[in-house]
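Late entry, written up from scratch paper. The run itself happened at the end of the previous shift, but nothing got recorded in the book at the time, so transcribing now.
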Amino acid sequence: MPANDDGGNVPLGIWRQNPARSAPLEPGERILWIIKDDGKRLIWVVVSTTPGGEVRLNTWDGAYDAAPKPVMGTPMLAQITSPEPGVIRTRGVIEGLGPFVEEARVMDGGKRLVANGQVTTTDGRVLSWTEDYDWIAPSPG
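Output as recorded:
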């Protein structure tokens, strides 16, 4: 069973998005790598593949309860908090769309991570998403 021995919120390792349980904002496949989460700082990498085969890399390295900072590889500014163990709340802005909120929750004994979010667009529409990940392997090395 995956665990986070560093005392963080999400088990470290490789997570694969489950397409049958996900409804992402943008279509495609995603692999999430939680590199560090010690409850003070979170580092992650997402590799996305679009339906057309384009590969995108997004990264974030930031402290919990700190000022918003960019998500590298995307037009996003984000900040994270954790109201309870196993939960990460993210708030920020997606450039060109509007402000967003997302809550990610660890489930099923640390083997599943479900993120639900929504963005309110500049014209007032609310777009929602669910990204549901299965833990597949510990971090390399």
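The chain has one domain: 28-133.
(Scratch paper discarded after transcription.)
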